[in-house]
Amino acid sequence: MSKEEAFILGCGYLGLLLAHSLKSKSIYVSASTRNREKAPDLLKHVDKVVFWDHDKKAGDLSKIKNLFFTAAPDGPSSYQETFLDNASFLKENLDQMPNLRHLIFTSSTSVYGDQKGIVSEATLPSPKTESSKILLQTEKKLLCLSESRPLKVTILRLGEIIGPNRMIGDKLKRYENKKIPGTGENITNLIHVDDIVRGINYVLENKLDGIFNLTSSYHVTRKQLYSEACRQKGLQEPLWDLNEETIHGGKRLVTSDKITSLGFRIHKNQLSDFL
After folding, report:
1. Order of all β-strands in the sheet with 152-158
2. Which of 16, 130, 142, 227 has its Cβ near the most Cβ atoms within 10 Å?
3. Contact 253/219 with Cβ under 8 angstroms?
4. Where residue 132 sits, what CATH number does that domain have?
5. How would you classify the pairing of strands 28-33 and 48-51?
6. Which segments constitute the NAD-dependent epimerase/dehydratase domain (predicted)?
7. Is residue 247 part of a domain?
8. Radius of gyration over alpha carbons of the chain, in Å?
């Protein structure tokens, strides 16, 4: 009997950790790359590499049962290519994936924009930046895929991703004696990468579809976060440049009550988990 096959579209920071988790469950994992030179390194983590080229037909996707769209852009200018173009490509090649039953896309809470107060999945998105507008368009395009065939589509709106090599302490070491834009009064919505991987597995195992937020319950202002983190790490606090607009907009507090009400538990919920 052949193994269940999963495909990771965008096997970077999050995708590689997800690949290791899936393989530990004896799932056969294939992953995409557009750069053939990266294939040997990628094969150290997955079972098969699929060369992903929008100008040509992708590799054989016929056995894929679950697809994880975890791609991350190189920068703001590549959002269109990373998200919308890939979503369009999936739509155009959906008939090449007759066994696909579940598609999970990792989006961002940035689609809620600068809204204030408590934000849930019932809150209407109000993206402010061009990149968050593209993410919302991608969500809508992927959700429509379930209209033409039996297919579960799940959107996970992630908070700010924290994890190995991306901890708050690592970031603040780079910020010492430097100015950072904003007042620091915006609310933080953090999520540890371990909880993201666990959340993706939970969605898959419980066949959940629809839209879910994924953030920890640790919500403080960014100024409070950086101040306490610097105190504990023995670092100098960064200086806030009040004349510049922060890249972390809004004072929204994004809750994950929807998915936790279904039994999922977020483990990383205190400052020490993110330092």
Report:
1. 48-51, 28-33, 5-9, 64-69, 102-108, 152-158, 210-214
2. 142
3. yes
4. 3.40.50.720
5. parallel
6. 10-213
7. no
8. 19
pLDDT at position 59: 66
Whole-angstrom Cα distance, residue 3 to residue 63? 10
pTM greater than 0.90: yes
Cβ contact 175:238 at 8 Å? yes
Q: Are 152 and 207 in contact (CB under 8 A)?
A: yes
> Per-residue DSSP letters for 87-149?
HHHHHHTGGG-TT--EEEEEEEGGGGTT-EEEE-TTSPP---SHHHHHHHHHHHHHHGGGGSS
Residue 257 within a domain: no
The domain tally of the chain equals 1
Structural domain for 42, as ranges: 5-161+189-214
Q: Is 107 contained in some domain?
A: yes
φ, ψ at 115 (rounded to 5°): -65, 150
Q: Is position 44 within any domain? A: yes
Task: Output DSSP code: residue 75.
Answer: S
Strands of the chain, DSSP E: 5-9, 28-33, 48-51, 64-69, 102-108, 116-119, 152-158, 160-162, 179-181, 190-192, 210-214, 239-241, 251-254
Note the pLDDT of residue 1: 44
DSSP secondary-structure letter at 272?
H
Listed as ranges, residues in the chain with pLDDT below 70 are 1-2, 54-59, 249
**Is the separation of the CB atoms in 249 and 113 below 8 Å?**
yes
Query: Which H or E run includes 19?
Result: helix 13-24
